[in-house]
Design brief:
The complex is a heterodimer of chains A (333) and B (264). Chain A is α/β, with parallel strands linked by helices and 333 residues long. Chain A contains eleven helices and 13 strands. With 264 residues, chain B is mostly helical. The chains are: A alpha/beta (333), B mainly alpha (264). Chain B: It comes from Rhizobium straminoryzae.
Chain lengths: 333, 264
Amino acid sequence: MAPIISAEHVTKVFRQRVRRPGLLGSLRDLAAPVTRPVNAVDDISFAIAAGEAVGYLGPNGAGKSTMIKMLTGILAPSSGKVMVLGRHPQANRVENARQIGVVFGQRTQLWWELPLSESFELHRRMYRVPSEVFARNRADLTEMMGLASFLERPVRHLSLGQRMRAEIAMALMHDPKILFLDEPTIGLDVVAKDVVRKFLSRINRERGTTIILTTHDLQDIEEICPRLIMVDEGKLLFDGAVADLRARFGARRRLVLEFSREPGFVHLAGAEPDGGEGHLRSFLLNDDGRSLVELLAALQADADLRDVRLHEPGIEEIIRTHYQRRIETGRAA
Amino acid sequence: MSAFLALIRAAFRRESEHHSRNVFRILGSLVEILARISIWQAAFGAHPALYGITLSQMITYSLIGGTILSSWDATMIVRDVGATIRTGAIGSSLLRPVGYPLMLLADQLGVRLFDWLLVSLPVIVIMGLIYGIEPPASLGHAMFFLGHVVVSLAILMLTGILIGLFSFWVFDAHSLEWFMRGLLAVLSGGLVPIWFFPKGLAEVAHALPFSWITYQPMAVYLGERDLAASALSLAAGCGWTAALGACVAFVWSRACGQVVVQGG
């Protein structure tokens, strides 16, 4: 099936002003500003099919929002090509906007001073939603997101959690084919996050709405997105199933052994010691197919093993390992 | 069209939420009109007329020209556009399936209509009762005046949007705002009618569209133009409106490539 979103060698360069020190420097900056290019997005390609839910992940400043802004048509790429639903989103901004829904966690699409219901009404007119479609969607979304109790309240009086639910509901009022979410759970409490995640996952499943979600909260991705695109410093690091991430980044399972008494140095063939004190010893397992039983059988008989725990690495850990490694190599260089 | 009207209404509703601010706007406008009238009273002194204009005509000019035809507050749009660019809030507007200049126009119209109804009208009534206000020179003049009011509104809004769009290149919207405020205060005839201008400046003012904001409509209202001249002036104003509209469309098409959305 043809992708509904594609990025081909997309690069976005911003010009950043370089400030020179001192009074003389600021005068020179004024007369002849010096800028240097910053690649917010650096040669990224991917394709997304209809109905997918994709997590777009990266640390702050990795170029996530810039990519979303290019896909939603509010920025043009410096080079390369983005296509959304067969169009260049920036050249066809208005037509593109009609078919997508967008939620920016840190900005509001709602009318701050007006009651929520009026924001919905304005949205209906701007997106030219037929009355019966609007009535049905409004009723459904109000029920699913629990908006009924504050529909008539001005948006500025809503809590962040209420507002975010309303933002997402509004973004879906016109039955968009694609829903873009930029940090939709930022600043929300655990309960609100849970509501939002369950809802998004349901919309993706039941309505077949394609979801692209940027976040740095990995749980968002674990619960909503089977596919993950990972970027860092503008570059693509990983694009594939969340399940394949471990293999790709070589994150290892951790084995923790608990002894009844201080065991001294413990050697475990096929595993690398990774700290531990007192009665505990921790190992990182080399993924060489050896079974746990085999590993433990090799322990000395008098080791007095009391308990064994095995930790599978979550994406969070995998990615943390990656970033730490990057910082370390950066320092070494 | 439905979206456009809905946006006008939303801006109107938003303005009506600021109760205390609106009370102070009425008070501020009353003081401003009082100051203008006092200045003209002092300038006329014992003279019944200056350059063929009577004090009573000047009071009417101050009252209407300083309220519904005033350019002063319309410069706020430049500040607003500048702020949305600086904070990156422009991104939210650009996500909507409506042309950005059209959204700006609807928003400004909503604000302006609110101002007319809840600030200008009370001020005209109150000050008119105290100082007296002249009616339009004739029914024909009244009709042409109404046409001019529409043109005045269009030229003012389009000028504001045009200068506002320059914020995409000039990051300091404040300087743009004051440039527009000064430019319009003088060249619209809002502070001093163009018939009191020195010859050279008057020629400049006539050659630009801004005199249609305050001066031309008031000249028609007060009967300083005959009906034929009023019709010509209205046609010229419509021409300027079309030209400014084309400028806005052109500058916006340039600005689109210039968009930098600030912040994450």
